[in-house]
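Dear all,

This email documents one entry for the complex benchmark we are building for the journal club exercise. For each entry we list the sequence lines for every component of the assembly. Then comes the predicted three-dimensional structure of the complex as a token string, followed by one or two observations. Please use this as the template for your own entries, and keep the labels exactly as they appear.
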Amino acid sequence: MTNRHLFLFFILVGLLSSACNGIFAWIYNPVPEKPAYGFIETDEASHRGTIFLDAHDYAKWTYVNLRRQMIDTANILMGEPDPDDWDFAIHRYDVKTNNGAALETHFTTLEDFSEGGLSFSGSFTYDTLSRIAIDMSGMMDGNVLYADSYLNPLLCNWLDVNTSQMPPIYTLSGKVYVLQLANGQYAALKFTNYMNAASTKGYVTIQYVFPINYAK
Amino acid sequence: MRKESIVLLLIMLYTAAAAQRDVFGTVRGNDSVALYGAVVALKENIGVVSSTAIDGSYKLHIPDNKAYTIEIIYYGYKKKNYNLQENESGIIDFVMEKDIYNLEQVVITGTRTPKLLKDVPIVTKVISHDDIILQNATDIRDILQSELPGIEFTYSMNQQVSLNMSGFGGNSVLFLIDGERLAGETLDNVDYSRLSMDNIDRVEIVKGAASSLYGSNAVGGVVNLITREPKERWKLNLNAHYGSHNNQRYGGSVGFNLGGVSNLLNVQYTSCNPIELKNDGAYNTIYGYHSLNIKDQLTYSFKNRFKITAKAGYFFRERKSQENSHDRYRDFSGNLKGDYHIGAKDDITLSYNFDQYDKSHFALTERTDVRSYSNVQNSLRTVYNHTFRKKHILTVGGDYLRDYLMTYQFENNGAHHQHTADLFSQFDWNPNKKVNMIAGLRYDYYSDANLHSVSPKLSTMYKLKDFAFRASFSSGFRAPTLKEMYMSFDMANIFMIYGNPNLQAEKSHNFGLSAEYNHKQYNVTVMGFYNRVKGRITTAWNTELNGMLYVNMAPLQIAGVDVSASAIWDFGLCAKLSYVYTYEHIALGEPLLSSTRPHTATLRLSYGRKWKNYHFNVALSGRWLSKVTCDEYTSLNDYTSTEKVTYPGYTIWKLIFTQKIYKGLNISLVVDNLFNYIPEYYYSNSPATTGTTFSVGVSLDLEQFFKK
């Protein structure tokens, strides 16, 4: 075998070896290894920011404190109580407020809402007693575990989960919601996603403006 | 002395000249049409060969006065032999009989060596290029469902496509392109949409186990797509198809054949809007999609002894499954193959194949495309054939495959890989023209499963006038896949699905008997089959793990009858009726979870005529699928018990009107679901139809306009 043939042979072996685990990996975005949760973007000047929450666990409430930019959690199955200080909370796609209320605007972006003078009108909806699924592990046995909980029915509309077919069809309302806090302050919330970068469901992204300097 | 030498030389020259002779005449079809390009050759002297001119004329210059056999070959017609007597010369005209059932078609799937369809002892169904054109097929699903009963494509979870072929699912039927495996699967099925028909010459289907030649997955059958090589010096095709729901298909192919070198490039783009279904069901919207498929094939051949084929392909499909997230599927493929005819008796093939199938999620808001699945297969293959006494063939070969899988269904999006290797041998024994027998044996090894498998086969055929009888025993196996061994998947935070490294391979024994009758324009084939499948791999609830686990299930028996009858008349009428009955049986007390319809049938009636500048064909095809009752887990109450569920049958008719106008302009009009069938409830195995749909297509073969 001549040197040229040997060279070609090794080139071929090299090509084959490099192709063993695939080619063109660079055309994809990398999987975020440890995504940051909580207030991932904040802009003090415009009072705007983005919150990213891991809400995939049926047994967990994730609490958002807009005033202190803090996140807290409580395990429902372990009987952990709500924390002392929070503004709204997420459980999967369920939303509740801490003695607050919510209103749906006709705006679909926070930019439009801001340009519209941050004004809103209409009546606020308060939380009502409902129930949430907290343990799905027995679903195959027909034993889904539920718990009573207050929910804000208007804020829960941010995502429509149509379970008439499998997998369900998820439809974002796309609307900007105004959240009235217990202390009378207002926040604008826009729920933008229900999945993480790997498209696993149960991860919620929320854009917000807080506080809204609103005077009637 | 000098004079004597000259006289002797003159005598020799005269004798030689006197011994030479010419045979000439015309070759025509039995419809009197002159056949252009037919090969007329002496069987015993390969140097004497001629091809017919445009008026069908030929001339053979024969160097001696011996007796010979003249062989006339023309694609689409039955091969003809003529016994040329000693000293016979002058005009000999030939009339060729149309090969309306493609019995002279060379097929490869049943034996892994080229063999005439009529001589294969394994029943092989062939869907020809003409059938593909006639059915206006986009991908393999269209053509298989239209042409063959017993085949059903349904939706499984998340509208992923699942196959059932006479009781065998997508992972038990091996799909090949020119004999090469396909990477990637979703819910046990390859991506059928990447198997577009634009560069396919024919599809060969072998029902029954074929693991003695193809190894794992060839349990219920093999579907082999054979690609085309351009025959014309150059060709350029452009085509477009538009239908209901904004269903679009645009394609083109450009190719050349310069004798030793040929190339064919195919590009196809398809798209369809989401389809809102009309009634309640397991799903109420069919996702919209678009796809792009690019394939290129370059061939170099040298003196008909050495041939190198290089292929490259790219496939992309985007499915609009969610409002802010789309599913993307990509495939990158490459193949390099060398065929070498060592002599008249020996040939060897060596090939390398690369296939990578990826899945990713495209987030529309963030514009990120994150890969969640990649299956990469690198394989090396060699096949050697030796012919004894011009009729018996010994085939020996081996494969090596490296299988790599990264998936979101493994822990931490991890990856596994394994090596597989095999050796196989087959002897094709042809003691006379009536009898053929093939015996084969294959050994497979899978590294991660530490699996050793031996697959035997024995097939025989006996021809008696217009009848051909075939009998076969073959075994099949399916090795547990990397997914089935290592899965650790959290199903929506509801339950886990676990892989099982201790899985055994599925094993099957297949027995087949068939009788085929061919007389003039009539063809009838009756085939009976029986399969005993042991250890089929499925998922079952595991109380200890509190999740689903891959396990081997109880033995299953699948038997049935496959009947087809067809007739093709000279005045242009063609009728074909096919029916399959499938019976499944599992041990008492075990659930029969598959939903194989016991009765299915297809019917095609077509009528066509050809004039110089205008051809037309009207084809009416129908599919009838009976209702089916199967077991399903009553998961809402108790996962250990099942209940009987019945799914309704249905019939779908399609009308296709095709026209060829002045050489290369083809127009097709399609009315699908002619009688407006709409399911009252859309089950996963209901046709996802909203009623009658219409489509129109145009195809332009530019090279045809330049032909005289």
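Observations: The radius of gyration of chain A is 23 Å. Chain A touches chain B at residues 16, 19-25, 27-31, 56-58, 136-137, 139-142, 162, 164-167, 169-172, 192-193, 195, 197-202 (CB under 8 Å).
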